[in-house]
Amino acid sequence: MTISVLQIEGQYLDLLKDAARKVEPIEACAMLFGEIKDEEIVVKKVVVATNKLHSEKRFEIDPEAVAEALTEAEREGLEFVGLFHSHPAPASPSSLDVEFMRLWGDAIWLILSSKDSRIGAYRMENGKVSEVAIKCVNTKS
Ligand SMILES: [Zn+2]
Question: From the candidates 24, 27, 35, 76, which is the catalytic residue?
């Protein structure tokens, strides 16, 4: 399956940026839930999680928190679509991130650079990392 666009509301991006700012320099992390339509993923829910490792170089979400978020999302009819984390490097996957991307299959990796506030979305496709375009929408009006 080819996914070329990640659609996300501006308010969710703000929420993720705030979460990252709060814990800096530790890596922030969150789970993304939503819908997959054709080649587009639409984020409908963001669950900010605690980085269990309290590390500046890696993150891990408590398995219980993951299970809880998955169960709740399922009740709401939403799919797990990706993971967010911040790191003090450019907004592209580190070699460690790439290793974990292999384990997470289809998930989108949304990465925020706490250095320059740039945000990027990536996905592992056929063993290669490809960048996914971010479409930021504003639904406040
Ligand atoms: Zn990273």
Answer: 27
- CA 13–ligand 1 middle distance (angstroms): 17
pTM reported for the whole predicted model: 0.94
Ligand 1 centre and the CA of 118: distance in Å?
A: 13
Q: Count how many domains the chain has.
A: 1
Based on the residue annotation, tell me whether 27 is a catalytic residue of this protein.
yes
pLDDT band at 140 (very low <50, low <70, confident <90, very high): low
What is the extent of the structural domain holding 51?
5-137
Q: Measure the CA–CA gap between 44 and 41, rounded to whole angstroms.
A: 9
Computed over every residue of the chain, the mean pLDDT equals: 94
**In 3D, which of 104, 113, 132, 103 has the Cα closest to residue 28?**
113
